[in-house]
Amino acid sequence: MQTSGCSGYWFLLENLYLDEQVRYTVTIYPVVILWLTGVMDNNASPGSHMYIFDALILAISCILFVVCITLVTWRHHKQPLYTNSEPRLSPVEISLTQPNFFL
């Protein structure tokens, strides 16, 4: 029972409050989807209440995964975290701007 609530809470927390920190971390959803697929595959009674409950959680997880990928793609193009306006420096140029402590 707690799995559907946790993934729903994580979806809201990830997409509303922690967007800048975890925007490109979407591996949680495939793990839950694979886990639930394995649980349903090992279940001996497909008509039981637990099988239906697992199928419902699997469907919710798949929908949330598609919505999350859509949001990440949309936000990547409309609200990028990084801009390309900064001058690009080579590693040598970066090291020359740092103070030398060991010389």
UniProtKB/TrEMBL annotation:
<keyword id="KW-0472">Membrane</keyword>
<feature type="transmembrane region" description="Helical">
    <location>
        <begin position="22"/>
        <end position="39"/>
    </location>
</feature>
<keyword id="KW-1133">Transmembrane helix</keyword>
<feature type="transmembrane region" description="Helical">
    <location>
        <begin position="51"/>
        <end position="74"/>
    </location>
</feature>
<keyword id="KW-0812">Transmembrane</keyword>
<protein>
    <submittedName>
        <fullName>Uncharacterized protein</fullName>
    </submittedName>
</protein>
